[in-house]
Structure formats: structure tokens, C-alpha cells
Amino acid sequence: MFVRLTRLACGIHSAALTLSLASSLLVNPAAWAQAQRYNIPVSSLAEALNRFAADSGVMITFRAEDTSGLGSPGLQGNFELDQGFARLLQGSGLRLVQTGNKRYVLSRVESGGAMELDATNINADGFGATTEGTGSYTTGQSSTATKLALTLRETPQSISVITRQRMDDQGLSDMTEVLQQTPGLSVQSLGSERFNIYSRGYSVDNYQFDGIPTTLDIATQMSAQSLADMAIYDRIEVLRGATGLMTGAGDPSATINLVRKRPTAEFKGHITAGVGSWDKYRTELDLSGPLIPTGNVRGRIVAAYQQNNSFIEHYSQEKEILYGVLEADLTDSTLLTVGADYQKNNPRGSSSVAFPLFYSNGKQTNFSRSTNSAARWSHNPQDALNTFASVEQKLAYDWTLKASVNQMYIKRDDYKLATASWGFPDESTGEGVRLYGGAGSTWQKQTGLDVQAQGPFQLFGRQQDLIVGYNYSRYENRHTPTRGTGIEGTYVNFYDWHNYTADPKVGGGKLYDGDTVIHQSGTYIATRLRPADDLSLILGARVSKYNYAYDLNYPATPRSNRSTDYKENGVVTPYAGMVYDLNDVHSVYASWTSIFKPQSVRDAEGSTVKPREGDNYEIGLKSEFFGGRLNTSIAAYEIKQDNLAVLDEGKTVNNDGTTAAYKAVSGATTRGFEIEVNGELIADWNVSASYSHGITKDSDGERLNTEAPANMVKLWSTYRLPGDFDRLTIGGGANWQSGTHITVTPSTDLGTVKAKQSQFTVVNLMARYQLTDQLSTTLNVNNLFDKKYLSALDTTFYSGYYGDPRNVMLNTRYDF
User: Fold this and answer.
1) 665 to each of 306, 613, 662, 696, 753, how far by Cα in Å?
2) Range 35-124: architecture per CATH
3) Which of 122, 622, 782, 816 is buried most, with the most CB atoms less than 10 Å from its CB?
4) Of all residues in the chain, what percent carry a pLDDT higher than 70?
């Protein structure tokens, strides 16, 4: 089967094959929208809606006060979905608005408006399922895994979604704050603006914006993706495991998809203002709606501003966010979307590397959490501009052709850094640490393009789905440090230098040019086949081309120049998944895909480590309760890899004494399992709970990647009180992780040493009070018991970074 799929993928040069298939095959309407028999008795409107949602398989979200005191005539007989909605809501003054596949939100009919059947739009537009305005902790569908619009239950891999409501409840305004709450992910700070995200024991470097891939290389310190502000996003989808079908080269860790907010058909908006610990101030403005009377052109604009100090001495941050997007219905079947988002990060006292993890005697350091290893004047600004556009054309027989492009441009102009992190301080005196840093400029440009055609077709008397497409990405990073900075080589006393040192003396031209260019392209095909009503097979393949080039040029010492070129053509990544419905609630699934990951690190002889290759297997049980309002998942996985690059203890590249050397390990195996619950247990009670376990071992049974926790538990829940207290919502949760450690050989003098962080728990609370129908205020308390812990153990610079102490944030929001 995979041989045939591979041959087919290799022969696809355009969407012509897909369109010809579509034109010859007639498709029936979706089964869940067709007429079926209902037996819903006369009852309260809330009870009738819950019963109808369970029977029809759709998700209906509403607030208790919307249905308070209202009854329903019930529903007896055969009805299509829109007819059933109209009958249940007859005389209520309410309507249901579709926000995604099989997902609806109850809203009030405007004054003077009549209740009509078309108040509910059965044919939903859009890519994915919007979570904004639903109040839900789950979503109706996701396309991150295969670009096919599937429910979470229909997706044969582990996928987690942090919805807009979850972000608002916990006050999650930064990407790293969101990922800290995401099941199975470990967020580790390597500096004030650098983060390493671990999933299933491996670093995450695949990020997407609305499904368009980008690459994050933390070594460049160009980290716009992990610094992204959440003001402009509807949800964050995290697909764990290998995702080579859509992304090509990548780790078997996870893909993080940032899904932007979209314009709305009706005018709406909100403004927020917040104040928090360490002089944190934040404001947001969000406006959305039609721009012309017909509603054919819609727009949205979001602006946010934040400034704050920190629990870390001499560190402060300022950021500005601006987002604008337009949607235009060029015809009844053509949708054009264009937009841009801009984020400016302006930190002071920023550290490129965290504090030293070891004393010169080999003991692990234990500094105050306020310790800053950076000079007060250290400045690491980042400006990131994303521009994007898409054209979506609906074709005959429910087929769609879509072309999307995203370009991200990041720059670091005139950065100046000095960090006391090179070496190991004497435990008694604090002597023995050199400054690491310098000055210069960097820019990075990433361009991503995706063209796809997808739709249903009839085969063996059943509806099947097919998608074919092509995507291309270009990553370009240009780094030019300045000569004569006078930073590196300067020794300071870590205890009493007070973060004072001379400013960099910029001059003498550039020190070197460090340029990285990566081209990647691929043709992909995937089909969802339904041999039986309760069985789905997802089969696919991708054929990729990968080019990597790195050039390091020293004008003053040409002999030190280095160049690395690596190319791969015709790399085939197959994918297979199976979902079997045990009943209307539970499904079992299994999936397999291959792994291909080029590596830029080098061994002790200076050679680039060969690409990683392997396989990713996963099986599990997924369930949808209450018509999809509550989703659960149990998954077990195994990852097998060869050429896994691990630190070669005590060795540096070409004995340069500074660049850590790596070695390739064959037969590395990762095994683990994950349990997850997300959604609504009962009306007004949302919950998110997960447990994840995973360990990586080499062929000799020795554990690898011990800096990533083997076990994590994440809990969060909110409940809106009933009756006279229904304006108050309370919530709380805790994150627990098992201990982590690293065993390294930083130098010959220091020998082999070990650093560890014991298991710890961080508890968070929230409360929101609805002052009026439009005005609310929310209080968040994070790390309630002020737990001190290391969030990172860095094996590259042998450094550590503390997690945030107890902090408080108060937000006020006005909706209009």
C-alpha cells in the first residue's frame, strides 16, 4: 500500500488529478446533518438542548442565564438538524450560530428580529473550529495532523488544544505560559528570551502559523515563536509525536500550531486593562466586524501593550503588539484573507545565558531567585513582522482549493549582551567567571507556502476524503557580530560585580558572518477511507527535498572559516492511521509514521552528525462525552531512532575548548503514555487534566535526555457558581513534575559533575466576578505556595534558570 501511495505522490505535479476526481464523484450531505428520529419530551430548554446535542452528535455551548426559566416543546419525529434547532428554540428569542464543524453557540436574536431557519448556518466555513466565544476548553475539529478537518476523536494521534477561554481564565498572555499548561510539554528557560520546549523527551522546533510551518533554532536567539503574545490568537493546537507528513524534517516531539483570530460577521470587541506583580501593566483592544453594509468584507484589529519589571534584578521588559486582518468574499465561492501582525520586544538587563550551574569545586550552585547573570545595560531587542495571505476557492461537489503564504521577518538591531556565565565561580570568593556576549545585529526571514486541494469522493458506496498539496519553506538567518566589543575574556566576581561592567566598545568592523539557509519543499497526499461505518483509515505520504547550508566567515582569520552543506532529495515520509468506533462515545486508534531530522551539531572531529531516522508508533483510546463537550484520550507510544545526537562528555569540536561536541547514538528508544481530559463535566464546570510519562534509553538501556521530566501531571478547573452567586467563577489547579538531572563533564579540571532538580508542584488559583453583563474582573494567583525550583538544566552552557515566584495579576475586561 505505501509503495503505491509513494509512487502516486511522486507523480503529482498539480491539483489536476484531484479536481478530475472531484468532478466525477457525487457526494451525499454529511451524515450528522441529515434527518434522523428524535424523542425529546417537553422539558426545560437547557435539558432539551443537551438531549438534542447528545442525540445528533453536535456540540452546543450556552450560558445558564441564557436558558434560565425557558421551556421547550420537545422534539418528536424525524427532523434535519436545522429543523430540529428551529423547533426546540421556537418562541425563545434565541438562535444557534455555527462556530465550527458540528459546533454551535447559543445567542440572542436582536430586537425586532424574527427567528428563521437560516439563523443556523449548517454549512460552516473556515479551516478548523473557532473556540472564541464558546466558553469551552475543547474544540470541534483540528487539521494540524493531516490538514483534513477532523474532530479530536477522529485524529489518530495525541493532540491538545488550549482554547481562548482557557487563556482568558488563567491569564495566559505569553506563548511559554500557554505551553506550561499544555499536556505533555516541559518549558525550560535557557535565558531571559530563550526557551527550550520538550515533548516526549525531545526539543520542539516545529511551529506553525495557521498551519504554515516555521522553524525555531534557539541557538540563534531569534525566538519570535516562543515569545509570541496571545492577544491575537484564537487557540494553540499541539500535536505530539512525529508530524513529517505535513512538516517534512522534524523531531518526533510535537508541532505547535498558532491559530489566529478571524474577523466576525457581527460587530464585537473588548478592551482589557491589568496590573500585576513586579509593576506589570497590560492593556488590550480588540475590534471586529463587517466593514461594508453587505458584510462581504470583514476586518479585525488587535492592539496590546505591556511593560513590567521582574523578580530578577535589573531585568525589565516592554512589548507592543499590533494585528490586523481582512476577509473578503470576492464571490459566493471565493474567500480572500490578508493580514499582518507585528510584535516588538524590548528587554533590558536580558541574559543570553542563565546563571552558572556549578561551583568550581563541582557542587551545584544555589543562588537567590533574584540573581541576574547579565549586565544591567544588556539589551536584546527583537522585532517580528508576520505577513500572510490566503485564497480559498470552493469547487463543485464540496471540494476546495486553497493557497496560503506566510512570511516572518525578525531582526535584532544593535543588540549588546554581557553575561557572567562562562566558567564556574569559587564557592567562597565568587571569583573565576568570565563574561560571555558581545554586540552586533541579526536578521532572519522565513517564507512558507502551501497549496492544497481537498474534498470528498464516493468509493464503494461510501463517502471518502482526499487531500493533495505542495508546500515550500525557506529559512534564512544572517548574523553579524561586531569586532572589538571588549566583553569576552573579562573576568568578574560573581558575588560582588553588581551587574556593572563597561559597555561594549563597538568598532573595528564585523567579527564574522554566520549565515544559515535552509530550503525545504514537499508534495503530500492523504486520504481518509471508510471501509465501514465504524472504521476509518488515514493513509498518506510525503516526498521531500531538503537543503541545508551554513557558512561562517572570519574576515581577519580566513583559516577559521567553516562551511557545511547538506542536501537530501526524494525523502519519503509515509503515514498510516486507523480509527475504530467502539460505539457512539469511544474509539480506538493506531498510527505510524517515519522520522527524518537533519542535524547541525558536529562531532569532536568537526563533522556534522548524520540525520536522525526512525519510526513513531502510537495507539490509544479517545472518547467524546455530552455531544463532544468533553474529550478524553489515553495514548501509548514508542519512538525508535538512529543517529540521535547526544552530548559527547568532555569533548569539544576540533578541541577548540568552547563548542560542545556531540556523538550519534543508534538504537535510541522512547516509550511512554499519556492520559488527558478536556472540556465540560457539567454546565459551567470546565476541567483540564493530564498525566504524561516518557523515558528515552539507548541500546544499552542507559537513560538519555534526563533534563526532560519523565512524569508530569497538570490539573486546572473552573466552576461558575449557581443561583444567586452565578456572577462568580472560581478556579484552580496544580502542575507537578518528577525530578530532572544532568551529568556532564564541563572541563578537565571540574571533571564529571551532576546537577538535579527534585520533583515539585506549582499551585495556581483564579476568581472572576461578572460585575455587569459586559464588565468583569479576574484575579489570578500563580505559584500560590511560592515554590522555588529550577525550570531548566542546560547541558550546552551548564547553566540554570529559576521559575517564577508567587505572583498576582488583576485584569478588568469590558465587552461590547
Assistant:
1) 45, 11, 10, 12, 22
2) 3-Layer(bab) Sandwich (3.55)
3) 622
4) 90
